[in-house]
Amino acid sequence: MSLPAARFLGIDLGTGSLKLAIVDGEGRERAASSVAYGIETPHPGWAEISVDTWWRALCEAAGKLPVDERTAVRAIGFSGQMHGVVLTDEHGRALRPAMLWPDTRALALLDAWPAPQPNPVAPGMAGPLLRWIALNEPQALHAARWALQPKDWLRVALGGAMAADPSDACATALAHPDGTWNLGLLDRLGLPHRWFAALSPSYAAGGTLSHEAARQLGLTPGIALAIGAADTPCAALGSGLAQDGDALLTTGTGGQIVVLSAGEPAKVRGLHAYRAATDHWYRMAAMQNVGVALEAARGWLQYDWQDAYRDAFATEAARGLTFLPYLTGERSPWLDPAARGGWLGLALGHTRGAMMRAAFEGVAFALRAGLDAIRASGVDVPSLKLAGGGSVDARWRQLLADALQAELHAVDCPNAAARGAAMLGGIACGHWSAADLPALAPASARVAAPSGDVELEERYVRFVDLYGRLKGWFGGAAPSS
């Protein structure tokens, strides 16, 4: 009897859910599953989660995949939410809950990264969070052996190597732009060198699946584990970004606009220049408040999602009503962790639907502000590939295209980051090489083109003006032009 064709499993460890995707030898998705979970907020501004929650989600999601697909898996790749940190002992066992990127407890400690920096520094990055631990949890400081990114913790838990990759390391605020650890900075911050694992390429092999993990997941022990990459570069890889200038919009809890670059992009305030999952770089605008803001607005207005879409897009936008979505501060382009959100211009006659419509527009405008910063850096972005679970409604897609003034091409890949992770697994075990990646790009179709809505553009100008007027009230200076 012939062996089943090889399969490759991608694990995407996200902020609000864990997603799995199995792809075949041609890069086609054969099965997928996901399990959602919540962020823990034991104190205002904190964002944590127990790693046991991640492990239970992984086991549950694996159990949803067909048995015959799981048994054919020959390698696993990893994608993980960027930033945050998992502090562990020498065996990779977590010493405290994982700290996540929306966490703002280290906001007052950012003075250790005086401007200018290679990339914007946010309080939820590993650097500021570890500095907070060093100052506030001395017992953890002395007990810890490793400070891992989320996907690296998961790989180690599956039996893999203790390692880091450039795409995650360069976004910790503790490394040089190419991802190598900045040892001088670690010394200045009082962070032990021993915490930081050696770097390997995202597509390199990083150990094999342990017997116990294989038993719990229904997989074959001993299969290859790729080092893996951060979720944004994995989504870019899975969505088919392969050439200089290719652009991608992902919408999930946060939102990212990624433009691939053959070389290191020029440094621009408010934008990020990071390493990709391959040997490329990418320019990125990272907006914190996409799904998280829409979910909050939906909950406050007591909508289910079907009714939220229906009422929001049933009528024209209410004149003079604006929603600032900055519920967790903002990164691109404002670099304003103190920013806050809410509805402005509310009147007694405004309906729930009008408020929900304003919330959708506010999120679209926040994305536009990030894209405008990229365009101002000299990069023309007339179209973007579109990925992420937060952008499937046709009315929402049209609003995004109109707000961004760009064509949107939906990628035929509902699990782009997990697919990109699976492709890293395929490279790690030798099934593919980097030269094969362009041919594996998924199909995409244009789903929206900008309609030239003049009134929408006027509302965007109002949105930016209102943010600027309120910034001083939040506690900062007016935004720079």
From TrEMBL:
Alphabetical list of Gene3D superfamilies matching this protein: 3.30.420.40
UniProt keywords, alphabetically: Kinase, Transferase
Domain of life: Bacteria
CDD domains on file: ASKHA_NBD_FGGY_EcXK-like
SUPFAM superfamilies in UniProt: Actin-like ATPase domain
InterPro entries: ATPase_NBD, Carb_kinase_FGGY, FGGY_C, FGGY_Carb_Kinase, FGGY_N
Transmembrane segments: none
Span of domain Carbohydrate kinase FGGY C-terminal: 312-429
Listed name of the protein: FGGY family carbohydrate kinase
